[in-house]
Write a structure and sequence with these properties.
heterodimer; A: 237 residues; alpha/beta; Rossmann fold; 2 domains; six-stranded mixed beta sheet; four-stranded antiparallel beta sheet; 10 helices; 10 strands; B: 346 residues; mainly alpha; two-stranded antiparallel ribbon
Chain lengths: 237, 346
């Protein structure tokens, strides 16, 4: 059994402070893995390091290959896409241009077909395709950020807090899309503060506290864990 | 002053303004993508002009040595950066984008220069010599500082300009040159004498501006450059590397520099150090446009050209003073009316 993404003893430091302290995790092909944890646990830093946006120590292997000297741009070409917490859209460009740029590493020829697939997944984006990305609502921005990442046809999609700042109904839609994507064969690494929603769609789960993984296992087991349900799921009510 | 003189001054001003517009566009382009205020832009213009003049006379231009020096520098930087991953393929790739193209271009220029094959070939050879200097200069001076502040980048830019001027003295010598005009003709339209060269300047500038807007609006690489200007991290996560957009932006700046050189070299005598003052006019126009917008920068460049030609008529001793002073009220106006914002986006 070889994992799609294998992270071993990953460490990221901001000066003296180690934000990620020896994290190991893996994502199996065709599954959703989630990392849950409180604000400031180091989840965003973890994803940025896996993407290659931050210098990190430790091993990141994707499809068995060591990514140590592979820059972020090259990781996109190899099949890893990140939907960052701040979305990082191109605000003064149209929705369609944002999507086209998502396929930058795949070339012009693939754009029409990819666009069709993304518009099928998010019909709202098609309605708004000529609008500037900066004029979209929060939910639409999240859709655009996901659509842009999917334009690269990733094998691993990393989502950083996709539910942040969104209404519960929209969160439900977004997470439904995430499980649809898994069914089409895209593996997903989902980082969430909203533990209940994340555990409901995930296959495996990791609990992260103060830069370290404190608990891991199948999502259903983690959801049933009394400590997790007390701290993260607001159990006991 | 009568109407004829005014018309003549306006024509002269528009001609100069067109050249400043090209410089301003190059500065805005490079600043938007890399946050570098490209002081050496004027050097690309002088090196282009001096290379054209040398080729016209059948000599091998000093830019051959300059190109080889920059390519060698870029190669050393790339090899140092690749020290963790010393595979033959990687080293081959580095050679293929540094010394190999520079060597081939230099060889071609050395062979073809004495044959004096005419202006079209001279322009082509000059373009081949000067355009690659852009990406090499980016590799040497700016790529290692990609995360630095605008101020640090500006200091590096001044350093790069001083170094390039010094190399210019070594490779081109202290003598000034002027090329023959591409088209030598004059027309009379009503009371106005129009030289074909000034029509060429305006026409070429307009064509180039149109081509640039098509490039940014329609092509994927043009959109990628805009994207890196809007959100650097967003660009990286879709796979647009900071280095790639930096290199493309610098190559385009050098190419725009060549166009400026072709247009300006017959109109004024260029020396190895003329670049600074030429670049400064473009810089003033770009600053008036806020260093971020093409259309206001182009408008400001034309206005600056006209102000310059009128001030050279009324108070020629104060020509430069008036031109550079004109920036003050505009900066004041901008600082009052535009909201303060951080220049360090992160």
């Amino acid at each position: 059994m070889s994992a799609l993404l294998e992270v071993a003893d990953l460490r990221v430091a901001y000066g003296q402070v180690e934000a990620v302290q020896g994290v190991s995790l893996s994502v199996e092909p065709g599954t959703i893995a989630t990392v849950i944890g409180a604000n400031g646990a180091g989840k965003t830093t973890l994803l940025a390091a896996i993407m290659g946006l931050l210098p990190a120590k430790g091993g990141v292997h994707f499809e068995g290959e060591d990514l140590a000297y592979v820059p972020a741009e090259e990781r996109v070409a190899r099949g890893i896409s990140l939907v960052p917490e701040q979305r990082d859209l191109f605000a003064t460009m149209s929705v369609q241009e944002n999507l086209e740029l998502g396929a930058f590493r795949r070339g012009r020829a693939e754009i029409p077909q990819r666009l069709e697939e993304v518009y099928a997944l998010f019909p709202r984006l098609k309605e708004r395709r000529r609008q500037h990305a900066g004029t979209l609502s929060g939910g639409e921005r999240q859709m655009l950020a996901m659509g842009r990442a999917l334009m690269a046809r990733p094998r691993l999609l990393m989502l950083d807090e996709p539910s942040l700042g969104l209404a519960p109904l929209i969160v439900r839609d977004i997470l439904k899309t995430v499980s649809q994507l898994r069914d089409t064969g895209v593996s997903i690494l989902l980082v969430e503060q909203n533990a209940r929603a994340a555990l409901a769609v995930a296959d495996t789960a990791y609990v992260m506290e103060l830069g370290a993984i404190t608990l891991s296992g199948p999502a259903s087991t983690i959801a049933a864990d009394p400590k997790v349900s007390e701290i993260y799921l607001g159990g006991g009510h | 002053m009568d109407g004829t003189i005014a018309l003549f001054l306006i024509q002269d001003g528009i001609t100069n303004g067109a050249i400043y517009a090209l410089l301003a566009v190059a500065l805005v382009l490079v600043f938007a993508v890399t946050r570098v205020i490209l002081i050496p832009q004027g050097d690309f213009v002088t090196f282009g002009g001096l290379s054209l003049a040398a080729l016209e006379m059948g000599r091998v231009p000093g830019s051959v040595a300059m190109l080889l020096a920059l390519a060698a520098g870029a190669m050393v930087m790339d090899l140092v950066a690749a020290r963790h991953d010393f595979r033959a393929k990687r080293i081959g790739a580095i050679l293929l984008r540094t010394l190999v193209p520079a060597g081939l271009i230099s060889g071609a220029v050395v062979l073809l220069a004495p044959l004096q094959l005419g202006p079209a070939v001279s322009i082509l050879l000059t373009a081949c010599l000067v355009i690659p200097m852009g990406p090499y200069l980016y590799r040497i001076a700016f790529q290692p500082l990609a995360r630095a502040s605008v101020l640090v980048l500006l200091i590096a830019s001044v350093g790069a300009h001083l170094a390039m001027t010094g190399l210019g003295l070594v490779f081109f010598g202290a003598e000034g040159y002027r090329t023959a005009p591409l088209i030598d003709a004059n027309f009379q339209i009503g009371p106005l004498f129009v030289s074909a060269q000034s029509l060429l300047v305006i026409g070429a500038t307009v064509v180039l501006l149109v081509l640039l807007s098509v490039f940014f609006g329609r092509t994927l690489i043009g959109k990628a450059l805009r994207a890196s200007a809007i959100n650097q991290r967003g660009a990286r996560i879709v796979g647009i590397s900071t280095e790639l957009s930096g290199r493309v932006a610098f190559a385009m700046a050098a190419a725009i520099g060549i166009v400026s050189a072709i247009l300006i070299a017959p109109l004024t005598t260029l020396y190895y150090d003329s670049g600074f003052l030429i670049g400064l006019k473009g810089f003033v126009a770009a600053i008036i446009g806020g260093l971020s917008a093409y259309v206001p920068a182009v408008g400001a460049a034309f206005a600056l050209g006209i102000v310059e030609s009128f001030s050279s008529f009324w108070a020629s001793a104060f020509k430069e003073v008036i031109v550079f002073m004109s920036i003050l009220p505009i900066l004041l106006w901008r600082s009052i009316w535009s909201p303060p914002h951080d220049d360090e986006e992160e």
